[in-house]
Task: structure prediction
Amino acid sequence: MGELKVTDRTAKVLFGHPWIFSDEVQVVGQLAASGTVKVLDSQGQFVAFALYNQNSKICGRVLTRDIKERVHERSFYRGRLLAALRRKRAVGQRGSFRWCFSEGDGLPGLIVDLYLCESVQVVVAQVLSLPLDQLMGEKVTFFEEVVNEAHAAGFLENDWDHTIVVLRNDANSREKEGLKIEPAQAIKGVRDFNLRSAECIFWYGEHSYSLHGDLLMGQKTGLFLDQSTNIGLIRKLLKGLEGPRDRPVRILDLCCYVGHWSTALSDELKAVGRKADVHLLDVSQAALDFAKDNCAKYTEQVSTYSFDALAEFKEPGLLEPFDIIIADPPGFIKRERDRNAGASAYLRLFQRSFEMVAPGGIVVCCSCSGLLEREEFEKLVQKALTRSKRSSQIAVRGGMGADHTTLLQFPQGQYLKMIALWMRD
Result:
């Protein structure tokens, strides 16, 4: 195994950060272009084992700081996946959730989502690291071994025969690692199961609800799992919602995708004896079709609108005040050069939401832009509130759920922000 010596004494890897940049280190001896390396400090003392890719600006990604680990063996990576699943089961994760979250679960460059469906489980994986891709070997065999071990240990409901594995190696970030962008593909299937319209089970406490989605060609890995915990926080607020109980609760779900927010809230309202009047807005008609189908299981009143959430609203159904508004847009700040335009877009969307909500209602503001830190995010929310000339109180703050494990020394992994406000007037 080759070695990297950290020459920059201020390098964050020395203080717990999982990334090593090429200008912070020098190669010691012979080193393969891609693989695992031993990382040393300037005095030659062991720091960590890492994945190494000489063609990436982030040339090293820490795997472990335990010198006893055998990172060159495939069993290490299977063991990390099993450990991640064991921890998430231990904290109550059920149904559909994120099994492995890259650096947060000690497998940098690997995302694995687990979807529980009625008769099968679907494992959707993204491999975003060249050395990890090589170390995992043949993917069907790798996941068969992991699923068999996890099922035998009681961590998975279904065995390998009732497991589908989908590779979503279609992310553009693979090119930065020297990996090819590949079409989404099911590398292991189950007969007669339609991935393009899968019904996935979610749990809230001891209560389950379901969402239809496209687990083969849908965004990311099919559904967005990162808001599940935050959605649960908002469900708890609904008992305090003002207004006559015989009047439907008007919900506006901006950038709704498949309608996870509005489906779960409609389910909660139904459970407490109230009706929901849901208005779904997204640029994708395919997403709206799924969203309408999902919400219709829990409420009869569902309307859809296919246009940009920042465009002018002219439709009559959107001109009356709403009791709940969800503003959960895509990441407006994907690169540093997007910062000003993205901040302006967040500001406009949040201001519009505050202007459209009824007194006593709830506005949920979200951002999934990793470059937008929480303090700056909340300043944008505050500015939007001031411009709308409304007053409010904080109902709840949210962020990453227990399935989206993060490292304290790795702020880049803490991308999700949420704040919900009660409107006073």
Remarks:
- DSSP finds eight helices and 20 strands in the chain.
- The domain at 74-199 is CATH 3.30.750.80 (Transcription Regulator spoIIAA).
